[in-house]
Specification:
Layout (H helix, E strand, L loop, with lengths): L8 H9 L3 H23 L2 H18 L9 H22 L7 H12 L6 H21 L2 H12 L4 H8 L3 H21 L4 H7 L1
Helix pairs in contact: 1-2, 2-3, 2-4, 2-7, 3-4, 4-8, 5-6, 6-9, 7-9, 8-9
Length: about 200
């Protein structure tokens, strides 16, 4: 049986820089899911996440020739995406967007507490509310902690990979992870969401 090897990022980048435009398309397809996933967790908005993902890939396309080390593409494209996410959230705040606060978390929790019964519709609504509260809690912690949690818990990156992307030591990344999760759990437990539910939904 013939085995087809998937080209590495370095191979695709080198092919692209040598004039093969199709290689960048393959690179974009390979990365768009991860970039969209990060942007969505960061912004909490699907349309904004799609826009950020597209902008990140366009920026990479235009500037790939400036990347000195093809092996650092993953760190580079994540940095582009992170900066675009920060810009988008800042732009939103400048439009008088009302930030999330703990009073809203209390309101969300009240809606969960009022629900009772075992019907699929009710369980689905409960799960949706829990996910919303977790998302709000994630958005309420310091940005540097939020980024690490998204990369580790939602995207499954290793501490060493995150450290390389954020240009920090592994110990710094672990510290941000520890304090970030503690901050989130503290806020979530105030909403009567148990640790088991927190870990399951994350």
């Amino acid at each position: 049986m013939e085995v087809f090897l998937v080209p590495s990022d370095v191979e695709l980048i080198n092919d692209f820089l040598n004039g093969n435009i199709q290689s960048f398309n393959r690179l974009a397809i390979k990365w768009q899911k991860n970039l969209f996933g990060f942007a969505y967790r960061y912004t909490g908005n699907e349309e904004e996440a799609k826009d950020i993902c597209q902008k990140a890939l366009i920026k990479a396309y235009k500037n790939l020739h400036n990347l000195k080390n093809s092996g650092s593409f993953s760190s580079w494209i994540y940095q582009i995406t992170i900066n675009l996410c920060k810009d988008e959230v800042k732009k939103r705040k400048n439009k008088n967007h009302i930030p999330y606060n703990e009073n809203k978390m209390d309101d969300e929790n009240s809606s969960v507490e009022l629900i009772s019964g075992d019907s699929p519709q009710i369980k689905s609504l409960e799960k949706k509310n829990i996910k919303e509260i977790i998302r709000f809690a994630l958005n309420s912690i310091p940005e540097e902690q939020k980024i690490v949690i998204i990369m580790k818990e939602y995207q499954g990156l290793k501490f060493t990979e995150i450290a390389e992307i954020l240009k920090c030591s592994v110990n710094t990344i672990k510290s941000r992870m520890y304090y970030g999760l503690n901050n989130m759990k503290e806020k979530l437990l105030k909403s009567n969401i148990g640790k088991e539910e927190i870990l399951y939904e994350m």
